[in-house]
UniProtKB/TrEMBL annotation:
This is ABC transporter substrate-binding protein. PANTHER family: ABC TRANSPORTER, SUBSTRATE-BINDING LIPOPROTEIN, ABC TRANSPORTER, SUBSTRATE-BINDING LIPOPROTEIN-RELATED. Keywords: Signal. InterPro entries: ABC_transpt-TYRBP-like. The keyword Signal applies. Residues 1-22 form the signal peptide. The keyword Acetylation does not apply.
């Protein structure tokens, strides 16, 4: 049996009696869908599968939320304020940074974030089991630290990684410190490259030390920008330093990708919204913990002359084989 990329530890318990939504004559729910890491259709399709018919039971106001230093971009504020005035019944955002930004404008509207590394440490929620207030969501299982450990298993001679991170993100420094501490235990130097915008990202790549063993990508880094991607791949080749991504998906040029499956966590967020629409208090819903998935691209490994140990391959959830880039093979995990 083919294995899914990852499984969620916390599974929403759904009532067998069907969804409880706006009754005849009542206005449908309105969701402010502000996610950008996954197509909004993934969330909407999951809500549909839970019994919410668009236009009858629920309406969506879609706007990928753009943030700068935890603040909403000025040109998005009017649209956000229109949503609040409508009003929307709940906001769904990418992450805890987005949740805190929304709360500054709409402290009384529930917010569900789809991913976070440590929502307690950065002050988004009070507690994992009882978040408090009207915010809840999902968090990772400290996947950046495990990813660093995996890199030393892929290349046992690893001595340094170039850690590119978006400095304005609320938890970026905390996570960088956690990874750095683990690096000290592993004998690996974690070289921080704090990015503030696309220009700084390009500059930091151009200034990458010659002797790095890995390029370590983290959230909010402009990896989806064409110019940045081109330079990232060129830097990987010139430095003979493979790229390690942070979510469980095949990304061209990345040898290792480790982290959550973003479409899966988006569907899970829809299940949390369903529970809130049924009457659950967001502040009483525990933060869900998601498992991480490991993707290994042997096409990249072969092109760089890297022999990935069988012990690592046995941990992989998804393997891309040379000569068959469009076909993926799932294995044990």
């Amino acid at each position: 049996m083919r294995k899914a990329i990852f499984s969620l530890i916390v599974v929403c318990v759904l009532s067998l009696s069907g969804a409880v939504y706006a009754q005849s004559g009542e206005a449908p729910f309105t969701i402010g869908l502000l996610i950008s890491h996954t197509d909004s259709s993934v969330f909407i399709d999951e809500m549909t599968s839970l019994g919410y018919i668009e236009g009858t039971d629920v309406n969506y106001r879609v706007m990928p939320l753009l943030l700068v230093e935890s603040q909403v971009f000025e040109d998005q504020v009017p649209q956000l304020q229109e949503m609040i005035a409508e009003p929307v019944d709940i906001f769904v955002v990418d992450n805890d940074t987005g949740a805190m930004a929304i709360r500054a404008y709409a402290p009384d509207i529930p917010v569900v974030f789809t991913i976070s590394d440590d929502p307690v440490a950065n002050g988004t929620v009070a507690d994992i089991t009882t978040p408090g207030g009207n915010t809840t969501g999902l968090m990772t299982n400290r996947h950046h630290e495990r990813r660093l450990q995996l890199l030393t298993e892929v290349i046992p001679t690893t001595k340094s990684v170039y850690y590119l991170y978006y400095a304005p993100a609320s938890d970026s420094v905390t996570i960088f410190n956690q990874v750095t501490e683990l690096g000290e235990e592993l004998g690996v130097e974690v070289i921080g490259a704090p990015i503030t915008d696309l220009e700084s990202a390009m500059t930091l790549l151009q200034e990458a030390p010659e002797d790095i063993d890995w390029l370590f990508i983290t959230p909010y880094v402009p990896f989806d920008n064409e110019d940045f991607t081109e330079l990232l791949l060129a830097t990987s080749e010139s430095h003979h330093a493979p790229i390690a991504g942070f979510f469980a998906a095949v990304v061209p040029g990345y040898l290792v990708s480790y982290g959550p499956d973003l479409p899966a966590v988006t569907r899970h967020a829809a299940q949390i919204v369903d529970r809130i629409f049924r009457g659950a208090d967001p502040g009483e819903l525990p933060i869900g913990i998601v498992e991480n998935g490991l993707v290994i691209d042997l096409t990249v490994a072969d092109s760089m002359g890297i022999d990935v140990p069988i012990a690592v391959l046995r941990q992989a959830d998804l393997i891309v084989h040379p000569g068959d880039a469009d076909t993926t093979t799932e294995t044990g995990g």
